[in-house]
Amino acid sequence: MIFDFGGVLTSSPFEAFARFETERGLPADIIRRTNAANHLENAWARFERAEVDIDTFDQLFATESLALGAEVRGRDVLPLLQGDLRPEMVEALKRIKAQFKTGCITNNLPANAIGSRTGRSLYVAEVMVLFDHVIESAKIGLRKPDPRIYQMMIETLKVDANNCVYLDDLGVNLKPARKMGMTTIKVASGAQAIAELEAATGLKLS
Q1: Which pLDDT tens digit goes with each residue over 23-66?
Q2: Apex CA 203: angle with CA 201 and CA 204, to 5°?
Q3: The sheet that has 133-136: what strands, in order across it?
Q4: Would the pTM count as exceeding 0.70?
Q5: What letter does residue 4 receive in the DSSP assignment?
Q6: Domain that includes residue 70, residue range
Q7: 128 and 173, same domain (yes or no)
Q8: In whole angstroms, what is the distance from residue 65 CA to residue 99 CA?
Q9: What are the tens digits of pLDDT across the range 117-142?
Q10: Are residues 127 and 192 in the same domain?
Q11: CB 43: neighbour CB atoms within 10 A?
């Protein structure tokens, strides 16, 4: 059982992006469109692989967003990433862990990129101990949807891809997992994800 973190165990940052855009009078979806353009090699991808520092990311994101219609500083986007933990998903994860091997593959940012995380790091740590193995993009220099990151997880957990379930909130990240033979769940809400997890595992998770 392999989980993404942000947007799966936490609420989606997209809601925060939309609020930010409305408050600043920016074009709708400018942040998401900037993230999606050239998504394997853009500022976001390079930052998640720890190839650039925060100052470079700030400038690159500003340039890329400006090309799409409005300048948004990379530094201003980072605080928007902190979604709220979904307690029902954490409870489901605890029940799954009692029966199955668990892994987490997260496209994350270099340590301290978001700045102070008072209180947050503590509860994230509590969730992270529920995984048998965690792969973080910023630590290994690879990020989803690179197929190698999924392969690393399967090899570390010593499981067959055909027996794995993978959850992510982004379709682009589900494709490589599905191609490898995993059952995939696109997470839109906690309730929907739990219903699909119950169907996939046969466990009562809520």
Answers
A1: 999 999 999 999 999 999 999 999 999 999 999 999 999 999 99
A2: 140
A3: 133-136, 103-106, 2-3, 165-168, 183-186
A4: yes
A5: -
A6: 13-81
A7: yes
A8: 45
A9: 444 566 688 899 999 999 999 999 99
A10: yes
A11: 25
